[in-house]
Amino acid sequence: MITFHIISLFPESFESYLNASIVKRAQERKLIAVKHYNPRDFAVAKNGKKAKTYAERRVDNRPYGGGPGMVMEAMPVIKAIEKAIGKKQEVGSRKQVVRKRKIKIIFFSPAGKQFSNQIAESFKKFTDIVLVCGRYEGIDARVKKAFPMTDISAGPYVLTGGELPAMIVIDSITRRIPGVLGHDSSIEELRVASPDVYTRPEVITYKGKKLRVPKILLSGHHAKMDEWKTNRKER
Description:
By secondary structure, the chain is of the alpha/beta class. The chain has 2 domains: 2-184, SPOUT methyltransferase, trefoil knot domain (Alpha/beta knot, 3-Layer(aba) Sandwich); 192-234. Helices cover 26% and strands 21% of the residues. It is built from 7 helices and 11 strands. The chain has a 5-stranded parallel sheet with strand order 2-1-8-7-9. A two-stranded antiparallel sheet has the order 3-4. The longest helix is centred in the C-terminal third of the chain and has 13 residues, at 222-234.
């Protein structure tokens, strides 16, 4: 089982996606688990005690060197990651074997390596994946000095926060876990697949025009159908 540990100021933003469809079923089948850690819960008040008020729970501050926006403070994020990582191994009952944890920490950044199917496949080997989601102008860079982590970008664009990239990573890795999709051939990138797919009926009519399924897909000739799919994929 893979446990995804999400470090985010807005854990509620994950609810609708993670509690639906394939990702939800993967959790119900104990193939994955998802845990949330809000850096606000690790903020410390000036008196050294746990922060309680809204002002005390603020974890953003002005950036050194000037510039617009605010930056997430390092220590609340470090404490959240520390909580997520916990002990290096878990011990169950006497009949169970000690499970060694393989931990991967992902830091979402537009400057990171662009996420891909190959990266998702390589991450599948980890037992615990920590997803650090930034907000505002980002997170104090000293967090990356406290823990070894991999910078990942969801694409060549900038988003408001790391929550959407985190959901992309969770989805992409989860669907590769045996048993999640029901059949390994459902993973499109591991088989011959076309970006164009069709289903019944064979002919539909729209605004007086008949739209048909390509004849090759009705032929039953698997080699030719695979060739057609490959050609469509390469366009």
